[in-house]
Specification:
The chain is an alpha+beta fold. Among the domains are: 28-193, Regulatory factor, effector binding domain (Multidrug-efflux Transporter 1 Regulator Bmrr, Chain A, Alpha-Beta Barrel); 258-308. The chain is 57% helix and 16% strand. The chain has eight helices and eight strands. Strand 7 (171-176) and strand 8 (179-185) form a beta hairpin. The protein is globular. One of its GO terms (cellular component) is endoplasmic reticulum membrane. This is Testis expressed 264, ER-phagy receptor. Residues 203-222, 262-278 have a biased composition (Basic and acidic residues). InterPro entries: Reg_factor_effector_dom_sf.
């Protein structure tokens, strides 16, 4: 019983082991352990003319464009140009151009080939030959080689460029024979930008400028509103000060005319009292009548006049007492 089970399980185990070994061999053959050597030097291609389609979106969706271009020109080399870093730019905004290399160097593409690609909606563009690029190569043996190249080559390219502080962009993938050539130009980078990319960059620049202008306008409006509030507050404070000053002036004006009648009443009262004093003393009556009470202006003059009145009264009383004493002695 046990032997029969082992006999049945052994073929299954061998099949599983063979499948694992096949998968491992396939992955190794695709370039899993291939050494990647990044260098700076001459490009793997010269000046080229390409037929391309522009796409904006995730790079993983570019496979259909490669398949289409290969179906149109199966004997031509394929090319992909990637303009954005998917680690820094959202996937839906990543831009690329995918197509076929129609000619290289001094050779010009045939009119028939141009019309064929244009018939399928492709556009024609030329890239110049540059003297120095950052480049490396990766085996293109299976479909898995493309995925392995993306995950193994690009990190090393980025590290190489950052460590040496190079200005290299965009990134090109050239599928030729059994190799994938990766390169990024160190000069004339703008000549590798297809018109669609330039248009999007102009649009983005215009949008940024409009946003900056809108921000400036908003800031100016806020400043004007703030200054208006300050001026209103200053105007309000000035008006309040003016109103308070006008109130004080009106109060002073209303109080000032009321003072003379009080002086006149006091003067009349004092004149009445002085008249009573003159009736009591005949000798001092004339002096009281000569007083000009209307010339009294302040409280000090009033105080002096009252003191003189009391002094005159005392002198009259003393004179009367002396007269009575003299008459008694006689």
């Amino acid at each position: 019983m046990i032997m029969s089970d082992l006999v049945l399980l052994a073929p299954i185990a061998f099949l599983l082991l063979g499948l694992l070994l096949t998968i491992l061999g396939y992955v190794l053959y695709s370039g899993l352990l291939t050494e990647i050597i990044v260098r700076t030097g001459s490009p793997p291609i010269r000046n080229i003319t390409i037929a391309y389609k522009f796409k904006q979106g995730p790079y993983k969706e570019c496979g259909s464009l490669f398949t289409e271009s290969c179906s149109i020109g199966p004997k031509l080399s394929s090319i992909g140009v990637y303009y954005d870093d998917p680690k820094q730019v959202p996937a839906e905004k990543c831009r690329c151009a995918v197509g076929s290399i129609l000619s290289e160097g001094e050779v010009k593409p045939s009119e028939e080939l141009l019309r064929l690609y244009e018939k399928f909606g492709y556009k024609i563009f030329s890239f110049p030959e540059v003297t120095h690029v950052v480049t490396t190569a990766f085996p293109h043996r299976t479909f898995l080689s493309v995925m392995l190249g993306v995950h193994r080559v690009y990190p090393q390219l980025s590290s190489y460029i950052k460590e040496r502080k190079l200005c290299a962009h965009p990134f090109l993938e050239i599928y030729r024979g059994d190799l994938i050539h990766y390169m990024s130009p160190l000069a004339r980078q703008s000549d590798f930008y297809v018109p669609e990319v330039r248009d999007t960059e102009r649009k983005l620049q215009a949008d940024e400028e409009s946003e900056d202008r809108q921000t400036d306008i908003t800031e100016k409006v806020d400043v004007n509103l703030f200054q208006g509030e300050d001026s209103n507050s200053e105007t309000g404070s000035v008006s309040q000060l003016a109103m308070s000053e006008s109130r004080e002036t009106s109060l002073a004006t209303s109080v000032a005319p009321s003072l003379p009648p009080r002086d006149q009443d006091d003067g009349d009262n004092r004149s009445d009292r002085s008249d009573k004093g003159s009736n009591e003393s005949v000798g001092s009556g004339s002096s009281f009548e000569e007083l000009d009470l209307e010339s009294i202006e302040g409280a000090e003059n009033v105080g002096v006049t009252q003191a003189e009145l009391r002094a005159n009264k005392n002198q009259d009383v003393i004179a009367e007492e002396r007269g009575a004493i003299v008459e008694g002695e006689e």
